[in-house]
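HUMAN: Please help interpret these tokens:
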Amino acid sequence: MLALLVVIGILMLRAAWLEIFQQEWLQQQADKRQMRVVTVPAYRGMITDRNGEPMAISSPVSSLWCNPQDLLKAQEDLRHQAAQVMGDAPSAQAKAAVKEAYNTARGEREVAAEKLAELDEGLRHIEQELEMQPGELSKKLAEASDKQFFYLGRQLSLETAQSILDLDLPGVAVTREYRRYYPLAETAGHVVGMTNIDGAGIEGIEKARNEQLAGKRGKTRVVRDAKGKLVESVISMEEVQPGQDVQLSIDRRIQYLAYKELKTQVSLLNAKAGSVVVLDAHTGEILAMANVPSFNPNNRKELQAYLYRNRAVTDKSEPGSTIKPLTIAAALEARVIGPEVEINTSPGYINFGKYRVKDPRDYGSISLPTLLAKSSNVGASRVALLMNARDQWMFLSRVGFGRVPGAGFSGETSGQLGSYTQWGKVDRASHGYGYGLSASLLQITHAYAPFAANGVLMPATIYKLDKPNLGQQVMSPDTARAVLRMMEAVVQKGGTGEKAMVDGYRIAGKTGTAYKYIDGKYRDDRYLTSFIGVAPASSPRLVVAVQIDEPKIDDSGGRASAPVFAKVMAEALRLLDVPPDDLPNTKQAVQQSEPKTGGAT
């Protein structure tokens, strides 16, 4: 009894020592094992079109993770229990004595086998969800057996994750995350872009506005049990700051029809690629931008890096004949010609030493509208040579050549516009009809905008504006209106852009075919075709540009690109409720209201 009392006294003293003198230390040790600081993901802001329709939204998902050591040990234990051999059933004499023990052991074995089957089924379910080969996940767990953290699956549905959690396996836990969903899929893939699996923007607007969209993650101190499951939240250390929404200037209706028509034409012509840009000339807002081939940001498993490129923004090429209206505008601004002047293109070519600029035939003396309608290289060269190099360079620079558009995309190219001090006679002539310099489709589309806005160039933007930005007067209103009327001849019967006509609307535009410069020479079998136009010509609103890369069937902008322009422009004007200006009862009124500028009609 004395010895027992001494032991009890020692235990009581030890308990008192731990409770009074080591309580804080013990609590700290317990907290280290049970208290965790977890990161709380922030809700990523939406990306919407100009009308508030969603183009990128986040939905809650679960990511399952585990401690591979605990999971593999549990799997091995269950397999061992399930494989235990119980032996033969006991004899009738012994059965009564061991019946209860036998049934208990058999029940434990069956439970273990059932749990093992559930575990294996859960692993197979995850393999199916991630499209893994059978047994691949078990192999990866074995390879990660020396680690204490391993993702079983990322961005799983809440139901799938819960079905795995219900197995109640040690070391398996869930993390709440958000998965990005893109309603327009491949239709707007290049514009909106995408996020990586961790939710960070890596392409398009998702990348350009990642900081604004992402918000700020929070931190919370929580208590977890021995299996890693959340018991309770103790305190919020840092509040979650949800991401902000971003509203684009895109109209998803126009975006859809632009992509649909472009994809159809690229397929029909068996072309390498194509791009479309729709621009509101009065605000600089981009209403649609589509590229083919595209990619579906919702399907990460089939994504290929070469498809991510937003060709309308990042790719630069020689504009070809689409620059000719700008050449005429530059000459009008330099006052070296007037709208009524005629250009002598005889004998149908110009020689610069070994270099020759030629037309399909000798057009003789032609007016400026005819120059554009026939797309005369000789005529454009003669107009360019009337200017000095500095005036030509200054005008092209004012309308955006040689500088980044700054529309809000990452990876925008500045194109190429060399210093005029290095230009020779050949350079000046070739720049006049679109060779020797380069620009993206967005740049050349933007350069056409002043024709539709009385000579004012508004900053291009992919974001919706609450109020218009300040524009720059890059040409006089008279020049803008004169060249616009000249471009109408291109779309009339006999012009190169006849297929760009839109019923009920007057169209002004220009076709272009630019041969590619490859391995030190221009290739006759590799070219870009394009058409850029403005409508309605009497009161312009939209600029639409179409570019088809290496069509295998039609070899000109008038045949390859103009039909896409006509369909996109027609539907866009209808969706925006822009009234027709080419109906019988409006033609006369329009003509009477137009200012006279000599013979340029």
About this structure: The chain has two domains: 32-62+180-248, 253-593. The first helix runs from residue 2 to 20. Residues 85-89, 585-601 have pLDDT under 50 and may be disordered. The CA atoms of residues 222 and 233 lie 4 Å apart.
